[in-house]
Amino acid sequence: MKGLQIIASAVAGLALVSGAPTPEKRQSGGLTDVQILQFALTLEHLESTFYSQGFQKFPAGDFIALGLEQSDVDALQQIGQTEATHVTVLQGVIKKLGATPVEPCTYNFGFTNAAGMVATARILEAVGISAYIGAAPLIDSADILTAAATIVTVEARHQTFIRIASGALPVPDAFDTPLGVRGVFTLAAAFIQSCPSGSDLGIAPFPALQINNNVNITAGTTLTLQDSSQAQALGGSVFCAFTGGQGTSFAPFSQGQCTVPDKLAGEVYVSLSKSGTELTDDQVLAGPSVLELS
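Predicted structure:
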């Protein structure tokens, strides 16, 4: 449990530094460090349960039938074990900070086969990476920020392995993609049926956005989107915002469709926006949804 020791030492050290900000201090993003840790724990609960339920449902033979080796299956199971360790680490840190850790929710991952589980794992790990990067500027404690970095680098290894196992490029872009708290929670909410009393983070997801033709997507592909917010019915211009490691690109959204710009790679987040030049929470109409390009 070396990770727990690192984080616990960081938290203890906060009290020893004269004038050091406490983890409870309110952030510019509206969340305290403890709330950010609770948010991270919510995501780790989801990932840990995902792997646990998936491996209970699908035997190793189902994954081997996809062309994976037994060593690959063992590695996938190890990923699930590390997610469970992340849960334990975060629970311990939150308790040390005097708060009660959030409990796991009830989930529906829509498992149908092992191939679908691997495909979903690829998306979940990408979202996990984006969540940690997106939350980094909101963390007040430099020590907790460093400790969080020890988790996100492992999440990145998870995703690289799963991309290789899926036959995709291991490193599709030079940069990973940060995603804000509400955007991450919007994606997580698609799997959450209900949460225990006291475990509601008070984060409102954006309206859902579904990509109806998310197969073999390349630059120039016309996407057909199902928008639960009925954005265009509100009037005014609406844009598809494509957020990847190189930033956000925009394309006009009309009659439920928009065209994928070039210079995008890997897992890209697609949102509907009132603006064609910036993507902030107050501009988002729906989404994000995850587009897989390579």
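Summary: The longest strand covers residues 284-292.
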